[in-house]
Amino acid sequence: MVKQGFAASHILFLEKGVVKLNVENRGKVTTFKIVNEGNFIGIMCSFVNKKLDFSAVAVTEASVFLMGREVMEKFIRENGAFALYTVKLMSELTNGVVHNLINLSHKNVNGAVATILIDLAEVFRSPGYELPFNRSQFADALGYSKESVINTLREFDRDGILEISGKNVYVKDMDKLSSIARNG
């Protein structure tokens, strides 16, 4: 949809679908956010740089509404209520990113994997979904080894918490998964 390093001339609003936001650094791609319909894509970065700090990749069929950055800036300048809404939205997003980073950094691998699986079920609005990244990218996003993430997914499958086949995940026991996320 958009590529890291391209000109940030538009604000993107996801009308339909699911998109993952990636950052590439030293040849490694890290997914830092999954966005579903009805949300802005990368609005936190949209007014800071002239180039995008991230790439947005469609995970499902998706459509995006593009608004010129100048148009958005004009709305913000001329409409106090819209400006306040935009500031609150950016604050919520920033707060969410900070809390997620802190939350995940204080969890063991089981808790971190469980947290991401629950977040994905919420984004996809379904207990069954396709992982939007491979195992290496999953591990990189969490800061754990690929082997640890694979072993955790196998353990969850073996314990009947979820069914996993390739990239397809089905959460069978959300209560157990939530308990692991909370306590892990």
TrEMBL record:
Which protein is depicted?
A: Uncharacterized protein
PROSITE patterns attached to this UniProt entry: CNMP_BINDING_3, HTH_CRP_2
Q: Which SUPFAM superfamilies match?
A: cAMP-binding domain-like (SSF51206), Winged helix' DNA-binding domain (SSF46785)
Q: Which GO terms describe its molecular function?
A: DNA binding; DNA-binding transcription factor activity
List, for all copies, the residue spans of the domain called Cyclic nucleotide-binding. Answer: 1-76
Keywords, A to Z? DNA-binding, Transcription, Transcription regulation
Please give the PANTHER family that the UniProt record associates with this protein.
CRP FAMILY TRANSCRIPTIONAL REGULATORY PROTEIN, REGULATORY PROTEIN YEIL
Q: Spell out the InterPro entries in the cross-references.
A: cNMP-bd_dom, cNMP-bd_dom_sf, Env_Response_Regulators, HTH_CRP, RmlC-like_jellyroll, WH_DNA-bd_sf
Q: GO cellular component terms? A: cytosol
> Which ranges carry the HTH crp-type domain?
107-175
What organism does the record attribute this protein to?
Answer: bioreactor metagenome
